[in-house]
Amino acid sequence: MRFVIDGMTIEAQAGDTILTACRRAGYYIPHLCFHGDLPAQGNCRLCLVESKGRLLPSCLTKVTDGMEVASATEQLHTLRLRLTQMLFVEGNHICPSCEASGNCMLQALGYRLGLLDNHYPQFFPRRPLDASHPQMILDFNRCIQCQLCVRASDQLDQKHAFVVAGRGGEAHITASSSNGQLGSTSFAATDHAAGICPVGVFLGKGVGYVTPIGERRYDRADIAQAGDRNA
Amino acid sequence: MTAAQGKAADGKTIQTVVRTAMRRCGTGRDALLAVLIHVQRHMGHLPDEAIAAVATAMRLTHGEVAGVVSFYAFFHQEPFGLYDCRLADNIIERHAGNAAVQERLGTLLKGGLGTLSTTSCIGLSDQAPGALIDGAPIPSLKDDRLEQVVHLMEKEIPVARWPGSLSRVKPNVRRADRILQQQAWQGEALRQAMTQGAAAFLEELELSGLRGMGGAGFPTARKWHSVREAAVTERVVVCNADEGEPGTFKDRVLLQRHAAALFEGMTICGWCVGARHGFVYLRGEYRYLLPILQRKLAARRRAGLLGQGILGVQGFDFDIQIRLGAGAYVCGEESALLESLEGKRGVPRPRPPYPVEAGFQALPTVVNNVETLSAACLVAVHGGAWYAAVGTAASRGTKLFSVSGDCSRPGVYELPMGTPLQELLQLAGAHRTQAVQMGGASGALVAPHDFGEPIAFEALPPGGSVMIFDQSRSISGIVHNFACFFAHESCGFCTPCRVGTRLQRDLVHKFTLGHGDAADLSELKELGLLMGRASHCGLGQSAGRAVGDALQYFPEHFPIASPDAFVQLETALEQARALRQAGGHTP
Ligand SMILES: Cc1cc2nc3c(=O)[nH]c(=O)nc-3n(C[C@H](O)[C@H](O)[C@H](O)COP(=O)(O)O)c2cc1C
Ligand code: SF4
Ligand code: SF4
After folding, report:
1. From the CA of B330, which ligand is nearest?
2. What pLDDT shows up at residue B582?
3. H-helix or E-strand spanning residue B416
4. CA nearest A181 in B: which residue?
5. CB contacts < 8 Å between A and B, how many?
6. Which atom of ligand 2 is nearest to the CA of A104?
7. What local confidence, expressed as pLDDT, does residue B6 receive?
8. What's the Cα-to-Cα distance from B483 to each of B284, B359, B490, B500, B546, rounded to whole Å?
9. pLDDT value at residue A156
10. CA nearest B412: which of B423, B399, B421, B403?
11. Which one, out of B164, B210, B465, B552, has a CA that is 20 to 30 A from the CA of B269?
12. Three-state SS at B321
């Protein structure tokens, strides 16, 4: 099966989504809430591509033989830039002093999309820190609600350590224990859930800034070449 | 209720309440929402101990239960006092003066007597302002009636003992046609369909041109056909009675007065597609309709119209359960509704698969609006050609409209599809009309130059709600109300809607204050397009529609402010000086 994206022909296997086929072929489509080990859910919307005038999440849309898709358009570039800016203003991001700086997929996307300002007013939400776990601090100020940790803990670790609570602007991720603290779950720093965050929410205790800023993954290469931080 | 709270403070009693709830509602994961509703009803609120007890009993994590609780607006973790008063705050209620009610009741309840909160629309816009007090609908909450409520509350009389006249909801049917003139079917329509046979009946349904009345207008026959053809043994019929679109109340009237037609329509559907299970997803706001609906279901079971061997036909088994929502507009979206029916947070699913392929518990499922299912009885009795004889080429039959706002005769009107809006406005006694919002907050804001247009799927959206605004109303105020609604009701799943609805709300707010600038204008337009194109579900996709229409058709309501209009330099400096004198750090 073949399809065409941005003028390039790509081979796809039965059951492939546009995103999985492109990833296999080494063609980058921006994404944050997608991870190859988990079923896609399509909530960050960064991987939207255009086909027959409609925008489709490439992580959920199955390839059909001969379909034509556009990803590298001016319009999609602007859309992705705006979505990235939305994620920035919704949380509290402090890149220059963030432990994840240079390893963060949100920041890396910002670089790639030429993000030079927030465009939208900051929300300055109040979000709690969870330092209850002996090995890990959760700084939810950086959370972009990709729900990867929730899904990884459910489906890869079978621990159900995280849940989504609240609705709309109040929606947030929290530990699933009765006091809402990670320390009261069976989560361990070796869990899949611990390494899957695309941004800087999960911070290991006792380590930090091991690689100097400036020499990290996305400091050295664009995310399209450097690949996903959590791969 | 206070007594119940006292009891529930004791751990054992909570366990008992939870056990009873599970006995009544089921023990499976899909019963979670129902169990929580039951527990809250018996305890007055859902403290952490109750969540813990439910989690233990249902073998879920605490967070999973808490995640469901925090999704639905009707759950609350703090006690409410004697009265749980939810004031409708849709734009129609605002225009009807709900601020006065808010002030009057707010002062009264403040001292712990009860809790006053607002909620978007409770399906009483034709009798605004209205409130739900301990779940009881209290329409026309003004003048004497407001004073009567105040008086009863001052005496701390429980709502159950209030005079029935206070909670009587008028049907307000202004014009009845085929759908509203149906008799209370007791199997006659079903028998007619069955004599035709399922395949022939589906052809009639196709011929009738019946399309979904819940907003999207999907051909009903095609939906039923897909489910019927699915290669499985179990299928499901779901009636969408969430009626969450602000300004809509026509399903309320159908449920109040024509439940027989709905249940018969669902049974016809069950027979036609080969389903044994039917659900009515009833919005939490309509809980007061539950007892009468349950009685009618019981009567139909006794009459052999539901249950096993319906109408004496061996193997024709179908029954209907009612499940309550708990205050989430997004649960009207069919896939979110299915999630909610499964006891989960009402987050819309990715599509495909569509509900006809994988719906309730992954079974092929028909999801239809109350009105659609009721209208199916007409096709069974009169045939497709008869049904299609009225209406326009693409929109057949008649349609119910919930008319509210600035008119002398608000209420439900059943009119042929294709009726010009102007005609409906005249019938409703609307004068000096400035704008009409068609199809609820997610619909279109229509300006006078389009009042001559027909109401039909191919022209003005025929969604149930018609909100009328006269010349005295502020357009930016109206769309600000809608923008707040979407920001409140977004499920939070996808980026454009979760963030965009809040940005939109704040930008529109600036214009209501006269502070909007040219950049805000273009930003609003861009945001509307972005949400429309990039959002995961219909909520986000339509969240910018009314605002976009307002900007296009009523630009004079969005004037660009000159800086002097809102920065009073002298006053600001004065304030700064005062702050400094008071010891602040402002220069
Ligand atoms: C945000 C949102 C809310 C909706 N609310 C309702 C509702 O309250 N009632 C309804 O019947 N359909 C509602 N719908 C439409 C349903 O998704 C679905 O199309 C409908 O129930 C199908 O039934 P029908 O074909 O009979 O119209 C809503 C859709 C969206 C996107
Ligand atoms: S998480 Fe990423 S985007 Fe956020 S502050 Fe850290 S580096 Fe910046
Ligand atoms: S569009 Fe809004 S309501 Fe729909 S899934 Fe996205 S966040 Fe939820």
Report:
1. 1
2. 84
3. strand B411-416
4. B63
5. 116
6. 2
7. 40
8. 23, 30, 11, 10, 9
9. 98
10. B403
11. B465
12. strand
Domains of chain A: 2-72 (3.10.20.740), 81-206 (3.30.70.20)
Question: CATH for B399-440+457-470?
Answer: 3.10.20.600
How far is Cα A1 from Cα B498, in angstroms, rounded to an integer? Answer: 36
- pLDDT for residue B74: 96
- CATH number for the domain formed by residue range(s) B174-388: 3.40.50.11540
What CATH homologous superfamily does B83-167 map to? Answer: Glutaredoxin (3.40.30.10)
Q: Count the neighbouring beta carbons within 10 Å of the beta carbon of residue A6.
A: 15
What interface predicted TM-score (ipTM) does this complex get? 0.98
Structure confidence at residue B112 (pLDDT): 85
User: Is the CB–ligand 2 distance for residue A203 below 6 Å?
Assistant: no
In one-letter notation, the amino acid at residue B540 is: G
- Pocket residue to mutate for ligand 3, from B72, B337, B537, B545, most atoms within 8 A of Cβ: B537
- Is residue A208 scored above 90 in pLDDT? no
pTM: 0.95
**Consecutive 10-residue averages of pLDDT for chain B (587 residues):** 44 87 95 97 94 96 98 95 95 96 93 91 96 96 95 95 96 97 97 97 98 95 98 96 97 97 98 98 97 98 97 97 97 98 98 96 98 98 98 96 98 98 98 97 97 96 93 98 98 98 98 94 97 98 98 96 77 89 66
The partner residue sitting opposite B503, judged by closest CB among A43, A120, A168, is: A120
The CATH code for residues B475-557 is: 1.20.1440.230
Residue B296 burial by CB count (10 A; 0-12/13-18/19+): exposed, middle or buried?
A: middle
Instruction: Indicate the domain borders of chain B.
Output: 3-71, 83-167, 174-388, 399-440+457-470, 475-557
Q: Quick check: CB of A199 below 6 Å from ligand 2?
A: yes
- pLDDT (0 to 100) of residue B4: 42
Q: Which residues contact B63 (CB under 8 A, 6 or more apart)?
A: A160, A162, A163, A165, A174, A175, A176, A177, A180
Q: Going by C-beta distance under 8 Å and a sequence separation of 6 or more, which residues neighbour residue B249?
A: B123, B124, B125, B126, B243, B402, B404, B412, B464
User: Number of C-alpha atoms within 13 angstroms, CB side, residue B108?
Assistant: 21
- The C-alpha torsion from B448 through B454 and B459 to B461, rounded to 10°, is 80
What's the CA-to-centroid distance between A172 and ligand 3, angstroms? 14
Looking at all shown ligands, the one closest to residue B369's CA atom is 1
Q: Compare CB distances from B499 to A40, A48, A86 and report the shortest one's residue.
A: A86
Any alpha helices (H) in B313-465, and if so which ranges? 334-341, 370-382, 384-388, 421-428
* Residue A204 confidence (pLDDT): 95
A56: which 2 tokens? 């489709």
β strands within B89-205, DSSP E? 114-119, 131-133, 136-138, 173-175
Residue B491 CA to ligand 3 centre (angstroms): 5
CB contact under 8 A, A45 and B496: yes
pLDDT at position B8: 54
3-state secondary structure of B367: strand
DSSP secondary structure string for all residues of B481-540 = HHHHHHHHH--S-SHHHHHHHHHHHHHHHHHHTT---HHHHHHHHHHHHHHHHH-SSHHH
Digit-coded pLDDT (tens) for A20-52 = 999 999 999 999 999 999 999 999 999 999 999
Which residue bears the tokens 């403040």? Answer: B110
Residues 6+ apart with CB under 8 A from A154: A160
pLDDT at res. A34: 98
The reply to whether residue B495 touches residue A45, judged by beta carbons under 8 angstroms, is yes
Atom of ligand 1 nearest to the CA of B283: 8
> For chain A, what is the mean pLDDT?
97
Centre of ligand 3 to C-alpha B352, Å, is: 16
Q: B67: CA distance to ligand 1 center in Å?
A: 24
The pLDDT of residue B309 is 97
Count the neighbouring beta carbons within 10 Å of the beta carbon of residue B383: 18
Do B490 and A44 lie within an 8 Å CB cutoff? no
